[in-house]
Write a structure and sequence with these properties.
It is found in: Endoplasmic reticulum membrane. By secondary structure, this protein is of the alpha+beta class. About 30% of the residues lie in helices and about 35% in strands. The protein is elongated. Residues about 10-25 have low confidence and may be disordered.
């Protein structure tokens, strides 16, 4: 009888132990890792962000992740390009500021954007986004041939249909933002901290040499005068031909 009681007690304690572990795993706030990279080169590139929720695929099913990006004045997002990508269901971005596509860096301000991620098919608990970014022309310089543009880390917002995923995250603030990129409904998103798995992104873009200014000006004027002369000559010859008929 004693051995039977001891066995029953052991089984009960084991069950309570594993139940406690399972409950803690289900209610704890998941760790989040973010890795970012830049694809392509030159003035037109792609900003790729991958978010990994360290949780089971079942738990994150029904969750959405939103990135609140701050784009520095040296870069911009093209609203017309983003609209085309959205129509083809490739990228979903909301621009929170008006964008001047032609303004140089020194006449521009930073841009705020909301980037809606998608589930990454290559990873069960990952989300991914790819956003085309473009570099602005910088003020010419006599000292450097390239300008450095630093991309700051985004704010990460999470929203889930299943409350049990975020039960352990109640200490983190709620942020109001659009539920999706196409509707006007606003939802409560939870701002979660994360670990960055990559170094801070720094883009190098070419800068014009201010000492080349006089030469560029002379060449521009010369080409303009030459083309104007060709046009006037063509008009004069056409007029003479018309008059002779």
């Amino acid at each position: 009888m004693l051995k039977s009681a001891d066995a029953s007690t052991f089984l009960l304690l084991s069950s309570l132990f594993w139940f406690g572990i399972r409950t803690a795993a289900e209610t704890s706030c998941p760790a989040v890792t973010v890795s970012r990279g830049i694809l392509k080169s030159g003035f037109h590139r792609d900003l790729v962000t991958r978010v990994k929720l360290h949780s089971s695929a079942e738990q994150i099913d029904g969750c959405s992740i939103l990135l609140q990006e701050t784009i520095p004045s040296g870069l911009f997002l093209d609203p017309y390009q983003l609209s085309s990508l959205r129509q083809h269901n490739l990228t979903e971005v909301i621009l929170l500021n008006a964008v001047d596509l032609e303004a140089p860096e020194y006449l521009s301000t930073e841009l705020n954007a909301l980037v809606y991620t998608r589930r990454d098919q290559s990873c069960d608990d990952c989300f991914i986004s790819s956003v085309p970014i473009h570099a602005r022309y910088h003020r010419p310089s006599a000292q450097v041939s390239e300008a450095s543009i630093v991309l700051s880390s985004p704010q990460l917002l999470v929203r889930c249909r299943k409350d049990f995923l975020l039960n352990g995250c109640l200490d983190y603030p709620l942020v109001e933002a659009p539920c999706g990129p196409t509707d006007g409904i606003r939802c409560q998103w939870m701002a979660l901290p994360y670990t960055e798995a990559s170094e801070k992104l720094v883009l190098q873009v070419p800068v014009g040499n201010i000492r080349h200014g006089p030469a560029v000006g002379i060449i521009t004027v010369a080409v303009t005068l030459f083309c104007t002369g060709l046009i006037l000559t063509s008009v004069y010859k056409h007029k003479r031909f018309t008059d002779s008929m």
